[in-house]
Amino acid sequence: MKVSIRQQDIARHLGVSLGTVSQALRNSPQVSSEMRLEVQRAATELGYIYRPRENQQTDMTNLAFISGAQPNNFFYTGVLQGIEESCRERNITLHYSSLKDISQPDLQRYRANDGLLVAGYVDQRMVRELKNLGLPMVLVDTNLSHLGLERIEIENFGSTYQAVEYLAAAGHRNIAFLCAPPPSRFSSFDNRRGGYFSAMSDLGLEAFDIHGLTDPVLKTSEQVITRWLEQHGKPAFTALVCCNDEAAIGALLAFEHHGIQVPQDISIIGFDDIEMAQVVRPALTTFHVDRNFLGSLAVNQLVERFQQPDKPVASILLETSFVERASTRRLI
Question: Widest CA span of the chain, in angstroms?
């Protein structure tokens, strides 16, 4: 009796995902030409006859979340939670990997997934290698627009611009910015720095940045501010905008250790609204990012890209919301 060959058999034969096989047989541009030829050649050898059906869709079953951030990163744990919840609702198996653990030979194992979510700091060469696998891919919180990939970004530039406007309206004229040295490993940090400098210029204020942050940001932030205070003494600036909440909390601890009170002497604004921002004293004024929604949105975009591989590439900008707490005060 003749055995009927299915797309699953081709996928198993080549060690790739069912979604890759389906897209290759439909000549989808989302799959590389080399992969399309390999799938179509295997289909011929195995005796598979492709019969297109109208409105054909396949379900995504395996998804890889690849992060350049450290596993205990306060921000991405919230994003991952949203991804996990969305995958459970869709019966998608989620695989987690740290980008720094991926070597060249490891890349091929990702071919068994139906799609990739890549978040945080990413090396462009590695992203190009992942793109060459021909799988649907969505970048989360990273701006590599020149690669032509679906991406979801946060309103970084506009938020720090708003932070400077808020502080200036409260009477602050000497406003500093704390971040990693430009260009940083995180494109989001560079965009936040850009928003700060743009607002300071537009308001006719002199910009001043303190940099040197590395991972872990919370620890190095405290060290950087401590070193700066030891070199320069009590700061002339009355407000500090930080690239994220960890940087803000580290700065707050350093100021406290040197007898500088927040917000009486210096107002501080963070970014992300991680859980610690609410419990630290004084509670941190910051920009709230709905990390759970960000993760869920990323899965939705990836599934849509998987089901509609020929649709135009989209970039989504997720707005933040300003949360005023006790770490800032008015001077006028």
Answer: 88
Residue 170 neighbours by CB distance under 10 Å = 15
Q: Is residue 325 part of a domain?
A: no
For the chain, give the percent of residues with pLDDT over 90: 54
Residue 240 shares a structural domain with residue 301? no
End-to-end Cα separation, the chain, in angstroms: 88
- Residues 134, 208 within the same domain: no
Count up the domains in the chain and report the number: 3
Q: Which letter does DSSP use for residue 91 in this model?
A: T
Question: With left for phi above 0 and alpha for psi between -120 and 50, is residue 29 left, alpha or beta?
Answer: alpha
Question: Which CATH number belongs to the domain containing residue 7 in this structure?
Answer: 1.10.260.40
Domain presence at residue 170: yes
Sign of CA dihedral 150, 154, 156, 161: positive
pLDDT single digits (tens) 155-177: 999 999 999 999 999 999 999 99
Backbone angles phi, psi at 245, to 5 degrees: -65, -35
- The residue among 145, 141, 111, 101 whose CA lies nearest residue 31 is 111
Segments forming the whole domain that contains residue 272 = 156-289
107 in the same domain as 47: no
| Dist CA 59 CA 332 (whole Å) | 59
Distance CA 189, CA 291 (A): 17
pTM confidence score: 0.81
Summarised one tens digit per residue, pLDDT across range 18-71 is 778 877 887 776 678 888 889 888 888 888 877 654 444 457 889 999 887 776
